[in-house]
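pinned: reference chain
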Amino acid sequence: MTLWPGAVPGLFLFNPRFPATIGPSLRLRTVRPTTTMLPTTAPARPALPLSTLGVRARQPAVAVLMRKALENPALLSLAAGFTDNTTLPGAEFVAAAQALAARRGEPEYLNYGTTQGRPQLRRLLAQRLAHWEPTLAAADYEGRCLVTTGSQQALYLAVQSLCDPGDIVLVDRPSYFAFLEILTSLGARPKSLPFDETGALRIGELHRLLDELARTGEIARVKAVYFVSYFSNPSGRSLGESDKAALGRVLAEHGVIVPVIEDAAYRELYFDTPHPARCVLTLPEWAAFPKLYALTLTKPFATGGKVGYAFCTDAVWLEQLLAIKGPQDFGSANYNQALFEEILLAGGFADHLPKVRRGYATKMRALHGALLAEGLRELGWHWEEPAGGMYLWLCAPTGFDTGMDGEFCRACVAAGVLYVPGEMCFGDRPARHFIRASCGVLSPDQLREAAKRFVQVARQFSLKK
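pinned: its structure tokens
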């Protein structure tokens, strides 16, 4: 039996599916139970002894935005990253449920499953991976696949397994705000990688950032690198292969060989053609790094199904992910996994994707076109039309404050339109002149009306300047 260097003492980590040469050792987090007493204004009632995690936990920002929408039914929300109800595959799920019910034998799909996920589903997902990355053999990745309750759980488990409070995770700029909230809730510190406003990596600045971390002694606290690489939430951009490769190469040059988390939740949601960049599992510049490649079956198909998955190249890390996940849920919903198995086997997933892509392309063009037609560019705003996904990243003119607590945001809500303030999407040094607008929920006509309301407010504020 072989244990990895740096393995947790006393923990049985042998996994016969993996040789002991997959990657370098990991610096796994140490669990230190602590408690903190919260103040109370009712002395007669004993205070609740919460853990440090419990004290840090906050309602996610998206909950605040959703509350605003629910409190005002006339509000048109460009904030929600939900999927379009009209594209949801109801017929495919009915057919899958009927196929399961018609199976001979015991209905095992209604029982508990395994923590790692149904073997046949993992086999099918590995085949999908090999479709996107033809140089990878599906058989090599079945055992490295972890099925999760949405890809968000995979991200949470990854950080939970790696980071102690005060540790650093290098993130893209802008970044997925729900991932930043994971870091905050676990006490980790996001530090932005130097990307410019076009999404290009500034290599010289990256060298300087890593040199500064080494000079201050903080380089040892860098535990992971995270980025959304395809049709990003929030920017809609995709990371070019040359920049992705350069990031791995520069990190390696500085000896920062830490786990990399590539979030590819939107890879399949291109409008016309896929983004050509390969993932970190394939690029030679990332070969020495422990890798977690996270995807989902929900964003491109049915969010209510809540089935995400990830491929982990490091045996110790995967074993720890499973060890943390097991006591939480004993495995993600077995029935949902079985439904997706049937859908994938019957070809329903591949057949339905073109409908989803056409739907989002139509709606994105409606929102983009309406903002142009209403004259937002003439007011000094700028943005790029994305080639996939469901988000527009709007940059306001100098002097605009689009923050949630700002006058502009309040005026938009009063006018009946809601957005995600861009300040939420920065790991550090938040910029308060960006907006994330989603085309996911509203119909094309509603998107045009939302754009009209938004531009009216923007015009009013431009006249004040």
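why pinned: Residues 90-346 form a domain with the Aspartate Aminotransferase; domain 2 fold (CATH 3.40.640.10). The longest strand covers residues 222-228.
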